[in-house]
Specification:
The complex is a heterodimer of chains A (about 300) and B (about 300).
Chain A lengths: L1 H7 L5 H8 L3 H26 L3 H21 L3 H19 L7 H24 L7 H7 L7 H30 L1 H6 L4 H23 L4 H15 L3 H25 L5 H27 L6
Chain B lengths: L14 H8 L3 H26 L3 H9 L1 H11 L3 H18 L12 H22 L7 H6 L7 H30 L1 H6 L4 H23 L4 H15 L3 H24 L5 H25 L16
Helix pairs in contact in B: 2-8, 2-10, 2-11, 2-12, 3-5, 3-6, 3-10, 3-11, 4-5, 4-6, 5-10, 8-10, 10-11, 11-12, 11-13, 12-13
The chains are: A mainly alpha (about 300), B mainly alpha (about 300).
Chain lengths: ~300, ~300
Protein backbone atom coordinates (compact mmCIF):
# COMPACT_ATOMS: atom_id res chain seq x y z
CA UNK A 1 0.00 0.00 0.00
CA UNK A 2 2.93 2.29 0.70
CA UNK A 3 4.24 1.54 -2.77
CA UNK A 4 1.01 2.52 -4.50
CA UNK A 5 0.90 5.70 -2.48
CA UNK A 6 4.41 6.58 -3.54
CA UNK A 7 3.45 6.07 -7.16
CA UNK A 8 0.48 8.35 -6.76
CA UNK A 9 2.83 10.90 -5.21
CA UNK A 10 4.75 10.73 -8.47
CA UNK A 11 7.87 8.79 -7.51
CA UNK A 12 9.19 5.53 -6.15
CA UNK A 13 12.05 7.11 -4.27
CA UNK A 14 11.23 7.26 -0.54
CA UNK A 15 13.31 10.40 0.07
CA UNK A 16 11.45 12.27 -2.64
CA UNK A 17 8.22 10.78 -1.30
CA UNK A 18 8.91 12.20 2.14
CA UNK A 19 9.81 15.62 0.77
CA UNK A 20 6.54 15.56 -1.23
CA UNK A 21 4.67 14.66 1.92
CA UNK A 22 6.25 17.48 3.91
CA UNK A 23 5.48 19.96 1.15
CA UNK A 24 1.86 19.95 2.29
CA UNK A 25 1.18 22.44 5.09
CA UNK A 26 -1.52 20.19 6.56
CA UNK A 27 1.02 17.36 6.87
CA UNK A 28 3.54 19.64 8.59
CA UNK A 29 0.85 20.70 11.03
CA UNK A 30 -0.18 17.08 11.63
CA UNK A 31 3.45 16.17 12.38
CA UNK A 32 3.99 19.19 14.66
CA UNK A 33 0.89 18.63 16.76
CA UNK A 34 1.04 14.84 16.46
CA UNK A 35 4.60 14.52 17.72
CA UNK A 36 3.96 16.49 20.90
CA UNK A 37 0.59 14.85 21.50
CA UNK A 38 2.17 11.41 21.09
CA UNK A 39 5.07 12.29 23.39
CA UNK A 40 2.64 13.45 26.07
CA UNK A 41 0.57 10.28 25.63
CA UNK A 42 3.67 8.11 25.92
CA UNK A 43 4.70 9.76 29.20
CA UNK A 44 1.26 9.98 30.77
CA UNK A 45 0.28 6.55 29.44
CA UNK A 46 3.21 4.89 31.14
CA UNK A 47 1.97 6.09 34.52
CA UNK A 48 -1.64 5.31 33.64
CA UNK A 49 -0.66 1.69 33.03
CA UNK A 50 1.71 1.56 36.00
CA UNK A 51 -0.95 2.94 38.37
CA UNK A 52 -3.61 0.59 36.93
CA UNK A 53 -5.79 3.51 35.87
CA UNK A 54 -6.42 2.42 32.28
CA UNK A 55 -10.14 2.21 32.97
CA UNK A 56 -10.10 5.83 34.13
CA UNK A 57 -8.54 6.69 30.76
CA UNK A 58 -11.36 4.76 29.11
CA UNK A 59 -13.89 6.79 31.08
CA UNK A 60 -12.17 10.04 30.14
CA UNK A 61 -12.46 9.18 26.46
CA UNK A 62 -16.24 9.20 26.83
CA UNK A 63 -16.21 12.33 28.94
CA UNK A 64 -14.19 14.00 26.18
CA UNK A 65 -17.01 13.29 23.73
CA UNK A 66 -19.65 14.76 25.99
CA UNK A 67 -17.47 17.76 26.87
CA UNK A 68 -16.91 18.58 23.22
CA UNK A 69 -20.59 18.28 22.34
CA UNK A 70 -21.75 20.34 25.31
CA UNK A 71 -19.35 23.07 24.16
CA UNK A 72 -20.67 22.86 20.59
CA UNK A 73 -24.29 22.85 21.74
CA UNK A 74 -23.84 26.02 23.80
CA UNK A 75 -21.74 27.58 21.07
CA UNK A 76 -18.21 27.83 22.48
CA UNK A 77 -14.94 26.40 21.21
CA UNK A 78 -15.03 22.61 21.26
CA UNK A 79 -11.63 22.46 22.96
CA UNK A 80 -12.88 24.37 26.00
CA UNK A 81 -15.44 21.63 26.54
CA UNK A 82 -12.84 18.94 25.97
CA UNK A 83 -10.34 20.23 28.50
CA UNK A 84 -12.81 21.44 31.12
CA UNK A 85 -14.84 18.21 30.94
CA UNK A 86 -11.85 15.89 31.12
CA UNK A 87 -9.98 17.75 33.86
CA UNK A 88 -13.11 18.07 36.01
CA UNK A 89 -13.89 14.38 35.62
CA UNK A 90 -10.30 13.36 36.29
CA UNK A 91 -10.11 15.43 39.47
CA UNK A 92 -13.55 14.23 40.58
CA UNK A 93 -12.49 10.60 40.17
CA UNK A 94 -9.32 11.26 42.12
CA UNK A 95 -11.04 13.11 44.95
CA UNK A 96 -13.99 10.71 45.27
CA UNK A 97 -11.98 7.53 45.02
CA UNK A 98 -10.34 5.98 48.02
CA UNK A 99 -6.64 6.81 48.10
CA UNK A 100 -7.09 8.82 44.94
CA UNK A 101 -8.39 5.85 42.96
CA UNK A 102 -12.09 5.31 42.30
CA UNK A 103 -13.80 1.94 42.08
CA UNK A 104 -14.40 0.56 38.57
CA UNK A 105 -18.12 0.09 39.04
CA UNK A 106 -18.56 3.68 40.23
CA UNK A 107 -16.48 4.97 37.30
CA UNK A 108 -18.41 2.78 34.89
CA UNK A 109 -21.82 3.92 36.08
CA UNK A 110 -20.79 7.55 35.97
CA UNK A 111 -19.26 7.64 32.55
CA UNK A 112 -22.02 5.54 31.02
CA UNK A 113 -24.43 8.24 32.12
CA UNK A 114 -22.13 11.05 30.98
CA UNK A 115 -22.03 9.41 27.56
CA UNK A 116 -25.83 9.37 27.59
CA UNK A 117 -25.69 13.12 28.20
CA UNK A 118 -23.31 13.38 25.24
CA UNK A 119 -25.92 11.71 23.04
CA UNK A 120 -28.48 14.24 24.25
CA UNK A 121 -26.20 17.18 23.38
CA UNK A 122 -25.37 15.61 20.02
CA UNK A 123 -29.10 15.62 19.27
CA UNK A 124 -29.51 19.19 20.51
CA UNK A 125 -26.54 20.36 18.48
CA UNK A 126 -27.55 18.69 15.23
CA UNK A 127 -31.23 19.56 15.55
CA UNK A 128 -30.28 23.23 16.01
CA UNK A 129 -28.75 23.06 12.55
CA UNK A 130 -25.16 22.84 13.75
CA UNK A 131 -22.95 20.18 12.23
CA UNK A 132 -23.83 17.92 9.35
CA UNK A 133 -24.01 14.53 10.99
CA UNK A 134 -20.23 14.13 10.95
CA UNK A 135 -19.44 16.37 13.93
CA UNK A 136 -19.95 13.55 16.38
CA UNK A 137 -17.85 11.26 14.21
CA UNK A 138 -14.99 13.78 14.11
CA UNK A 139 -14.96 14.13 17.88
CA UNK A 140 -15.09 10.38 18.35
CA UNK A 141 -12.49 9.44 15.76
CA UNK A 142 -10.37 12.53 15.32
CA UNK A 143 -9.31 14.52 12.27
CA UNK A 144 -5.61 15.30 12.60
CA UNK A 145 -5.27 16.23 8.91
CA UNK A 146 -7.88 18.93 9.44
CA UNK A 147 -6.04 20.95 12.12
CA UNK A 148 -5.94 24.70 11.47
CA UNK A 149 -2.69 26.65 12.13
CA UNK A 150 -4.03 28.10 15.39
CA UNK A 151 -5.34 24.70 16.54
CA UNK A 152 -1.92 23.24 15.80
CA UNK A 153 -0.17 25.94 17.80
CA UNK A 154 -2.40 25.38 20.84
CA UNK A 155 -2.19 21.59 20.60
CA UNK A 156 1.61 21.72 20.30
CA UNK A 157 1.93 24.17 23.21
CA UNK A 158 -0.32 22.07 25.47
CA UNK A 159 1.55 18.92 24.43
CA UNK A 160 4.91 20.53 25.21
CA UNK A 161 3.59 21.77 28.55
CA UNK A 162 2.40 18.26 29.43
CA UNK A 163 5.80 16.81 28.57
CA UNK A 164 7.60 19.38 30.76
CA UNK A 165 5.28 18.83 33.72
CA UNK A 166 5.47 15.05 33.41
CA UNK A 167 9.26 15.08 33.30
CA UNK A 168 9.30 17.39 36.31
CA UNK A 169 7.06 15.16 38.46
CA UNK A 170 8.27 11.82 37.04
CA UNK A 171 10.50 10.94 39.97
CA UNK A 172 8.10 11.50 42.89
CA UNK A 173 5.19 10.13 40.85
CA UNK A 174 7.14 6.97 40.11
CA UNK A 175 7.93 6.58 43.78
CA UNK A 176 4.29 7.16 44.75
CA UNK A 177 3.03 4.75 42.07
CA UNK A 178 5.33 1.87 42.91
CA UNK A 179 5.10 2.01 46.70
CA UNK A 180 2.54 4.45 47.98
CA UNK A 181 3.02 3.75 51.67
CA UNK A 182 6.79 4.13 51.63
CA UNK A 183 6.55 7.23 49.47
CA UNK A 184 4.06 8.81 51.87
CA UNK A 185 6.32 7.98 54.80
CA UNK A 186 9.25 9.59 52.95
CA UNK A 187 7.28 12.82 52.67
CA UNK A 188 6.09 12.55 49.07
CA UNK A 189 2.68 14.29 48.78
CA UNK A 190 1.03 11.09 47.52
CA UNK A 191 -2.55 12.31 47.50
CA UNK A 192 -1.80 15.63 45.81
CA UNK A 193 0.22 13.77 43.21
CA UNK A 194 -2.65 11.35 42.59
CA UNK A 195 -5.15 14.17 42.07
CA UNK A 196 -2.73 16.22 40.01
CA UNK A 197 -1.88 13.24 37.87
CA UNK A 198 -5.50 12.51 37.01
CA UNK A 199 -5.93 16.19 36.11
CA UNK A 200 -2.97 15.76 33.74
CA UNK A 201 -4.57 12.61 32.30
CA UNK A 202 -7.65 14.74 31.70
CA UNK A 203 -5.61 17.35 29.82
CA UNK A 204 -3.96 14.57 27.82
CA UNK A 205 -7.34 13.07 26.95
CA UNK A 206 -8.58 16.43 25.70
CA UNK A 207 -5.36 16.87 23.78
CA UNK A 208 -5.33 13.42 22.18
CA UNK A 209 -8.98 13.72 21.18
CA UNK A 210 -7.93 16.34 18.63
CA UNK A 211 -5.50 13.88 17.04
CA UNK A 212 -7.01 10.40 17.14
CA UNK A 213 -10.46 11.10 18.57
CA UNK A 214 -12.10 10.45 21.90
CA UNK A 215 -12.65 6.74 21.33
CA UNK A 216 -9.12 5.90 20.21
CA UNK A 217 -6.98 7.88 22.65
CA UNK A 218 -6.99 4.88 24.99
CA UNK A 219 -4.81 3.01 22.51
CA UNK A 220 -2.28 5.81 22.30
CA UNK A 221 -2.15 5.92 26.11
CA UNK A 222 -1.82 2.21 26.79
CA UNK A 223 -0.20 0.47 23.79
CA UNK A 224 3.24 2.23 23.76
CA UNK A 225 3.42 2.09 27.57
CA UNK A 226 2.58 -1.60 27.78
CA UNK A 227 4.96 -2.39 24.90
CA UNK A 228 7.78 -0.49 26.60
CA UNK A 229 7.10 -2.40 29.79
CA UNK A 230 7.50 -5.64 27.84
CA UNK A 231 10.96 -4.62 26.68
CA UNK A 232 12.36 -3.36 29.96
CA UNK A 233 11.22 -3.38 33.58
CA UNK A 234 13.50 -0.49 34.53
CA UNK A 235 11.28 2.61 34.94
CA UNK A 236 13.29 5.37 33.26
CA UNK A 237 14.31 3.42 30.15
CA UNK A 238 10.71 2.15 29.92
CA UNK A 239 9.41 5.72 30.20
CA UNK A 240 11.72 6.90 27.44
CA UNK A 241 10.89 3.89 25.28
CA UNK A 242 7.18 4.52 25.77
CA UNK A 243 7.61 8.06 24.43
CA UNK A 244 9.69 6.81 21.49
CA UNK A 245 7.16 4.14 20.58
CA UNK A 246 4.26 6.58 20.83
CA UNK A 247 6.00 9.16 18.63
CA UNK A 248 7.11 6.41 16.23
CA UNK A 249 3.52 5.12 15.94
CA UNK A 250 2.33 8.67 15.29
CA UNK A 251 4.91 9.27 12.54
CA UNK A 252 4.40 5.87 10.95
CA UNK A 253 0.63 6.30 11.05
CA UNK A 254 0.72 9.80 9.56
CA UNK A 255 3.05 8.71 6.76
CA UNK A 256 1.00 5.61 5.95
CA UNK A 257 -2.24 7.59 5.93
CA UNK A 258 -0.62 10.07 3.54
CA UNK A 259 0.69 7.31 1.28
CA UNK A 260 -2.59 5.40 1.28
CA UNK A 261 -5.32 8.06 1.27
CA UNK A 262 -8.15 5.54 1.69
CA UNK A 263 -6.88 4.80 5.19
CA UNK A 264 -7.88 7.38 7.83
CA UNK A 265 -4.91 8.60 9.95
CA UNK A 266 -6.58 7.69 13.24
CA UNK A 267 -6.71 4.08 12.08
CA UNK A 268 -3.11 3.95 10.82
CA UNK A 269 -1.75 5.54 14.02
CA UNK A 270 -3.64 3.01 16.13
CA UNK A 271 -2.59 0.19 13.80
CA UNK A 272 1.08 1.12 14.28
CA UNK A 273 0.69 1.37 18.06
CA UNK A 274 -1.10 -1.99 18.22
CA UNK A 275 1.47 -3.53 15.88
CA UNK A 276 4.33 -2.36 18.09
CA UNK A 277 2.62 -3.86 21.11
CA UNK A 278 2.00 -7.13 19.28
CA UNK A 279 5.69 -7.32 18.35
CA UNK A 280 6.62 -6.61 21.96
CA UNK A 281 4.35 -9.40 23.22
CA UNK A 282 5.70 -11.91 20.71
CA UNK A 283 9.33 -10.90 21.36
CA UNK A 284 8.97 -11.21 25.12
CA UNK A 285 7.18 -14.56 24.83
CA UNK A 286 9.94 -15.89 22.58
CA UNK A 287 12.59 -14.60 24.96
CA UNK A 288 10.84 -16.15 27.93
CA UNK A 289 10.65 -19.47 26.10
CA UNK A 290 14.38 -19.33 25.36
CA UNK A 291 15.23 -18.47 28.94
CA UNK A 292 13.11 -21.16 30.55
CA UNK A 293 12.35 -23.91 28.04
CA UNK A 294 10.76 -26.09 30.69
CA UNK A 295 8.31 -23.45 31.87
CA UNK A 296 7.22 -22.51 28.35
CA UNK A 297 3.49 -22.29 27.96
CA UNK B 1 -37.22 10.31 18.30
CA UNK B 2 -36.67 12.73 15.48
CA UNK B 3 -38.75 10.63 13.13
CA UNK B 4 -41.80 11.08 15.23
CA UNK B 5 -41.36 14.75 15.97
CA UNK B 6 -44.23 16.65 14.49
CA UNK B 7 -46.42 13.60 14.06
CA UNK B 8 -49.65 13.15 15.91
CA UNK B 9 -48.02 11.36 18.83
CA UNK B 10 -48.25 13.31 22.07
CA UNK B 11 -48.31 12.63 25.74
CA UNK B 12 -51.55 13.17 27.65
CA UNK B 13 -52.64 12.70 31.23
CA UNK B 14 -54.59 9.64 30.22
CA UNK B 15 -52.24 6.71 30.86
CA UNK B 16 -54.48 4.32 28.94
CA UNK B 17 -54.41 6.47 25.85
CA UNK B 18 -50.63 6.92 26.18
CA UNK B 19 -50.10 3.19 26.32
CA UNK B 20 -52.46 2.75 23.42
CA UNK B 21 -50.37 5.21 21.39
CA UNK B 22 -47.21 3.39 22.44
CA UNK B 23 -48.45 0.10 21.01
CA UNK B 24 -50.20 1.61 18.00
CA UNK B 25 -47.34 0.91 15.60
CA UNK B 26 -45.90 -2.49 14.90
CA UNK B 27 -42.35 -1.13 15.01
CA UNK B 28 -42.92 0.04 18.57
CA UNK B 29 -44.22 -3.38 19.57
CA UNK B 30 -41.11 -4.93 18.07
CA UNK B 31 -38.91 -2.33 19.76
CA UNK B 32 -40.41 -3.16 23.15
CA UNK B 33 -40.08 -6.89 22.51
CA UNK B 34 -36.42 -6.49 21.55
CA UNK B 35 -35.79 -4.16 24.48
CA UNK B 36 -37.34 -6.68 26.88
CA UNK B 37 -35.10 -9.46 25.64
CA UNK B 38 -31.98 -7.32 25.77
CA UNK B 39 -32.77 -5.98 29.25
CA UNK B 40 -33.09 -9.52 30.60
CA UNK B 41 -29.85 -10.71 28.98
CA UNK B 42 -27.93 -7.57 29.99
CA UNK B 43 -29.30 -7.65 33.53
CA UNK B 44 -28.21 -11.24 34.08
CA UNK B 45 -24.81 -11.03 32.36
CA UNK B 46 -24.17 -7.61 33.91
CA UNK B 47 -24.69 -8.97 37.40
CA UNK B 48 -21.70 -11.24 36.92
CA UNK B 49 -19.69 -8.40 35.32
CA UNK B 50 -20.21 -6.17 38.35
CA UNK B 51 -19.72 -9.02 40.77
CA UNK B 52 -16.42 -10.01 39.14
CA UNK B 53 -15.36 -6.34 38.89
CA UNK B 54 -14.89 -6.80 35.14
CA UNK B 55 -16.42 -3.48 34.12
CA UNK B 56 -13.51 -2.65 31.83
CA UNK B 57 -13.62 -5.97 29.95
CA UNK B 58 -17.40 -5.68 29.73
CA UNK B 59 -17.11 -2.18 28.34
CA UNK B 60 -14.50 -3.25 25.80
CA UNK B 61 -16.58 -6.17 24.56
CA UNK B 62 -19.57 -3.86 24.21
CA UNK B 63 -17.86 -1.21 22.10
CA UNK B 64 -16.44 -3.91 19.82
CA UNK B 65 -19.98 -4.32 18.50
CA UNK B 66 -19.40 -1.12 16.53
CA UNK B 67 -16.61 -2.42 14.23
CA UNK B 68 -18.63 -5.61 13.90
CA UNK B 69 -21.65 -3.78 12.59
CA UNK B 70 -19.59 -1.39 10.46
CA UNK B 71 -17.57 -4.26 8.97
CA UNK B 72 -20.71 -6.24 8.16
CA UNK B 73 -22.22 -3.20 6.47
CA UNK B 74 -19.05 -2.65 4.46
CA UNK B 75 -18.94 -6.29 3.34
CA UNK B 76 -22.66 -6.32 2.68
CA UNK B 77 -23.49 -9.19 5.02
CA UNK B 78 -26.13 -9.37 7.73
CA UNK B 79 -25.19 -7.06 10.60
CA UNK B 80 -25.88 -9.79 13.17
CA UNK B 81 -22.89 -11.77 11.90
CA UNK B 82 -20.64 -8.78 12.44
CA UNK B 83 -21.99 -8.13 15.93
CA UNK B 84 -21.60 -11.68 17.15
CA UNK B 85 -18.37 -12.38 15.26
CA UNK B 86 -16.48 -9.36 16.53
CA UNK B 87 -17.71 -9.50 20.12
CA UNK B 88 -16.80 -13.17 20.45
CA UNK B 89 -13.46 -12.58 18.71
CA UNK B 90 -12.60 -9.78 21.14
CA UNK B 91 -13.53 -12.02 24.07
CA UNK B 92 -11.20 -14.73 22.76
CA UNK B 93 -8.35 -12.24 22.18
CA UNK B 94 -8.66 -10.72 25.64
CA UNK B 95 -8.52 -14.16 27.24
CA UNK B 96 -5.81 -15.50 24.94
CA UNK B 97 -3.13 -12.79 25.18
CA UNK B 98 -0.56 -13.92 27.73
CA UNK B 99 -0.06 -11.12 30.17
CA UNK B 100 2.78 -10.78 32.58
CA UNK B 101 2.17 -9.42 36.04
CA UNK B 102 5.65 -8.58 37.17
CA UNK B 103 7.08 -8.37 40.64
CA UNK B 104 6.41 -4.69 41.25
CA UNK B 105 2.67 -5.13 40.92
CA UNK B 106 2.66 -3.91 37.34
CA UNK B 107 -0.55 -5.38 35.97
CA UNK B 108 -0.64 -5.63 32.21
CA UNK B 109 -4.15 -6.98 31.77
CA UNK B 110 -5.97 -3.60 31.71
CA UNK B 111 -3.48 -2.33 29.14
CA UNK B 112 -4.25 -5.28 26.87
CA UNK B 113 -7.97 -4.72 27.25
CA UNK B 114 -7.48 -1.03 26.45
CA UNK B 115 -5.41 -1.71 23.35
CA UNK B 116 -7.91 -4.27 22.08
CA UNK B 117 -10.70 -1.77 22.60
CA UNK B 118 -8.95 1.13 20.86
CA UNK B 119 -7.75 -1.00 17.96
CA UNK B 120 -11.16 -2.52 17.31
CA UNK B 121 -12.75 0.93 17.40
CA UNK B 122 -10.11 2.15 14.95
CA UNK B 123 -11.01 -0.79 12.71
CA UNK B 124 -14.63 0.27 12.94
CA UNK B 125 -13.70 3.76 11.84
CA UNK B 126 -11.71 2.27 8.94
CA UNK B 127 -14.75 0.27 7.81
CA UNK B 128 -16.85 3.42 8.01
CA UNK B 129 -14.38 5.31 5.84
CA UNK B 130 -14.07 2.45 3.36
CA UNK B 131 -17.82 2.18 3.00
CA UNK B 132 -18.44 5.66 1.77
CA UNK B 133 -21.77 7.25 2.32
CA UNK B 134 -22.62 5.69 5.60
CA UNK B 135 -21.17 8.34 7.81
CA UNK B 136 -24.66 9.42 8.84
CA UNK B 137 -25.45 5.90 9.98
CA UNK B 138 -22.55 5.90 12.43
CA UNK B 139 -24.52 7.66 15.15
CA UNK B 140 -27.19 4.98 14.95
CA UNK B 141 -24.58 2.21 15.28
CA UNK B 142 -22.94 3.93 18.23
CA UNK B 143 -25.96 5.26 20.05
CA UNK B 144 -28.67 2.89 18.93
CA UNK B 145 -32.03 3.16 17.37
CA UNK B 146 -35.01 1.09 18.25
CA UNK B 147 -36.78 2.00 15.04
CA UNK B 148 -36.93 -0.63 12.36
CA UNK B 149 -36.51 -3.80 14.41
CA UNK B 150 -37.92 -6.58 12.23
CA UNK B 151 -39.88 -9.65 13.33
CA UNK B 152 -37.00 -11.82 12.17
CA UNK B 153 -34.55 -9.85 14.34
CA UNK B 154 -36.77 -10.32 17.37
CA UNK B 155 -36.78 -14.09 16.80
CA UNK B 156 -32.98 -14.17 16.46
CA UNK B 157 -32.57 -12.00 19.57
CA UNK B 158 -34.87 -14.28 21.56
CA UNK B 159 -33.09 -17.46 20.44
CA UNK B 160 -29.57 -16.15 21.10
CA UNK B 161 -30.66 -14.54 24.33
CA UNK B 162 -32.12 -17.82 25.55
CA UNK B 163 -28.89 -19.59 24.65
CA UNK B 164 -26.80 -17.00 26.53
CA UNK B 165 -29.03 -17.28 29.60
CA UNK B 166 -28.84 -21.07 29.46
CA UNK B 167 -25.05 -20.89 29.30
CA UNK B 168 -25.03 -18.53 32.29
CA UNK B 169 -27.31 -20.89 34.18
CA UNK B 170 -24.92 -23.78 33.54
CA UNK B 171 -21.72 -21.97 34.52
CA UNK B 172 -23.34 -19.64 37.09
CA UNK B 173 -22.68 -21.60 40.24
CA UNK B 174 -19.02 -22.57 39.64
CA UNK B 175 -18.41 -19.09 38.19
CA UNK B 176 -19.68 -17.53 41.40
CA UNK B 177 -17.39 -19.76 43.40
CA UNK B 178 -14.43 -18.95 41.13
CA UNK B 179 -15.18 -15.23 41.38
CA UNK B 180 -15.38 -15.15 45.17
CA UNK B 181 -12.23 -17.11 45.85
CA UNK B 182 -10.23 -18.24 42.81
CA UNK B 183 -7.59 -19.99 44.88
CA UNK B 184 -9.98 -22.11 46.92
CA UNK B 185 -12.16 -22.81 43.87
CA UNK B 186 -9.18 -23.95 41.87
CA UNK B 187 -8.00 -26.13 44.76
CA UNK B 188 -11.38 -27.85 44.90
CA UNK B 189 -11.22 -28.69 41.21
CA UNK B 190 -13.15 -25.80 39.65
CA UNK B 191 -11.58 -24.90 36.28
CA UNK B 192 -11.16 -21.21 37.13
CA UNK B 193 -9.38 -20.09 33.99
CA UNK B 194 -11.63 -22.02 31.60
CA UNK B 195 -14.66 -20.57 33.37
CA UNK B 196 -13.43 -17.02 32.96
CA UNK B 197 -12.83 -17.62 29.23
CA UNK B 198 -16.28 -19.13 28.79
CA UNK B 199 -17.82 -16.27 30.73
CA UNK B 200 -16.13 -13.67 28.53
CA UNK B 201 -17.42 -15.44 25.42
CA UNK B 202 -20.96 -15.62 26.79
CA UNK B 203 -20.61 -11.95 27.69
CA UNK B 204 -19.48 -11.23 24.13
CA UNK B 205 -22.63 -12.90 22.80
CA UNK B 206 -24.79 -11.02 25.29
CA UNK B 207 -23.39 -7.58 24.47
CA UNK B 208 -23.54 -8.30 20.74
CA UNK B 209 -27.21 -8.94 21.27
CA UNK B 210 -27.88 -5.88 23.38
CA UNK B 211 -25.90 -3.48 21.20
CA UNK B 212 -28.18 -4.14 18.24
CA UNK B 213 -30.81 -2.18 20.13
CA UNK B 214 -28.90 0.26 22.35
CA UNK B 215 -25.95 0.97 20.08
CA UNK B 216 -22.39 -0.04 20.79
CA UNK B 217 -21.55 2.79 23.18
CA UNK B 218 -24.60 2.48 25.41
CA UNK B 219 -24.69 -1.30 25.98
CA UNK B 220 -22.39 -0.76 28.87
CA UNK B 221 -25.02 1.32 30.67
CA UNK B 222 -27.51 -1.55 30.58
CA UNK B 223 -24.81 -3.98 31.58
CA UNK B 224 -23.50 -2.16 34.60
CA UNK B 225 -26.20 0.17 35.96
CA UNK B 226 -29.02 -2.24 36.90
CA UNK B 227 -26.49 -4.77 38.20
CA UNK B 228 -24.65 -2.21 40.31
CA UNK B 229 -27.95 -0.97 41.71
CA UNK B 230 -29.03 -4.53 42.51
CA UNK B 231 -25.76 -5.29 44.30
CA UNK B 232 -26.22 -2.23 46.49
CA UNK B 233 -29.55 -3.64 47.62
CA UNK B 234 -28.84 -7.31 48.14
CA UNK B 235 -25.84 -9.59 48.37
CA UNK B 236 -27.85 -12.74 47.73
CA UNK B 237 -26.92 -13.95 44.22
CA UNK B 238 -30.33 -15.28 43.14
CA UNK B 239 -32.22 -12.29 44.45
CA UNK B 240 -29.60 -9.93 43.03
CA UNK B 241 -29.87 -11.47 39.57
CA UNK B 242 -33.65 -11.13 39.60
CA UNK B 243 -33.46 -7.58 40.90
CA UNK B 244 -30.89 -6.67 38.26
CA UNK B 245 -33.15 -7.98 35.49
CA UNK B 246 -36.21 -6.22 36.93
CA UNK B 247 -34.39 -2.88 37.25
CA UNK B 248 -33.07 -3.32 33.71
CA UNK B 249 -36.58 -3.96 32.37
CA UNK B 250 -38.05 -0.93 34.13
CA UNK B 251 -35.20 1.31 32.92
CA UNK B 252 -35.50 0.17 29.31
CA UNK B 253 -39.29 0.34 29.16
CA UNK B 254 -39.33 3.78 30.75
CA UNK B 255 -36.52 4.97 28.51
CA UNK B 256 -38.14 3.82 25.29
CA UNK B 257 -41.60 4.88 26.41
CA UNK B 258 -40.50 8.40 27.32
CA UNK B 259 -38.31 8.87 24.27
CA UNK B 260 -41.27 7.85 22.08
CA UNK B 261 -43.04 10.99 23.20
CA UNK B 262 -39.93 13.15 23.17
CA UNK B 263 -37.60 14.61 20.58
CA UNK B 264 -34.55 13.38 22.46
CA UNK B 265 -32.92 9.99 21.86
CA UNK B 266 -33.72 6.80 23.77
CA UNK B 267 -30.04 6.40 24.70
CA UNK B 268 -30.16 9.51 26.82
CA UNK B 269 -33.28 8.42 28.69
CA UNK B 270 -32.11 4.84 29.20
CA UNK B 271 -28.76 5.91 30.66
CA UNK B 272 -30.39 8.60 32.78
CA UNK B 273 -33.01 6.27 34.28
CA UNK B 274 -30.32 3.63 34.83
CA UNK B 275 -28.04 6.08 36.59
CA UNK B 276 -30.97 7.33 38.67
CA UNK B 277 -31.73 3.75 39.72
CA UNK B 278 -28.10 3.31 40.75
CA UNK B 279 -28.06 6.56 42.74
CA UNK B 280 -31.33 5.68 44.48
CA UNK B 281 -29.88 2.28 45.40
CA UNK B 282 -26.69 3.88 46.76
CA UNK B 283 -28.69 6.44 48.75
CA UNK B 284 -30.98 3.72 50.09
CA UNK B 285 -28.00 1.70 51.20
CA UNK B 286 -26.38 4.65 52.95
CA UNK B 287 -29.59 5.47 54.80
CA UNK B 288 -29.99 1.83 55.73
CA UNK B 289 -26.45 1.70 57.11
CA UNK B 290 -26.76 4.99 58.95
CA UNK B 291 -29.84 3.94 60.85
CA UNK B 292 -28.04 0.97 62.25
CA UNK B 293 -29.74 -1.81 60.39
CA UNK B 294 -26.50 -3.12 59.02
CA UNK B 295 -27.05 -6.50 60.50
CA UNK B 296 -30.18 -7.16 58.50
CA UNK B 297 -28.45 -6.14 55.27
CA UNK B 298 -25.41 -8.21 54.34
CA UNK B 299 -22.22 -6.55 53.10
CA UNK B 300 -21.90 -5.61 49.44
CA UNK B 301 -19.15 -8.11 48.78
CA UNK B 302 -20.86 -11.46 48.89
CA UNK B 303 -19.86 -14.29 51.14
CA UNK B 304 -19.32 -17.76 49.73
CA UNK B 305 -22.48 -19.14 48.13
CA UNK B 306 -23.93 -22.02 50.05
Amino acid sequence: MIATGMISAGTLDPITGISHMLAHPFMIRAFEAGTLIAAACGLVGYFVVLRAQVFTGDALSHVAFTGALVALAIGVDLRIGLFVGCVLFGVAMAVLGTRGRADDVVIGNTFAWILGLGVLFLTIYTSNGGGNGTTGVNVLFGSIFGLSPSQTAVAAAVGAGLVVVMVAIARPLLFASIDEAVAAAAGVPVRALGVGFLALVGVTAGEATQAVGALLLLGLLSAPAAAAQRFTARPYPALALSVLLAVGSMWGGLALAYAAPTLPPSFTILAFATGVYLVAIIASQVRRRQLTPAAAR
Amino acid sequence: MGLLAGSSVHLSWNLGSDLHQLFAFHFMVNALRAATITAIVAGAAGWFVVFRRQAFAGHTLSVVAFPGAAGATWLGITAAWGYFGFCVAAAVIISAVPYSDDRRGFSEEPAIVGVVQAFFLALGFLFVMLYKGFLNGVDALLFGTFLGVTDHQVVVLAAVGAAALAALAVIGRPLLFASVDPAVASASGVPVRALSVVFLIVLGVAVAEVSQITGALLVFALLVMPAAAAQQLTARPALGLILSVVIGLVVVWLGIGVSYFSVYPSGFYITTFGFAAYLVAVAFRHLWDRFGWQRSLPPVRVALPA
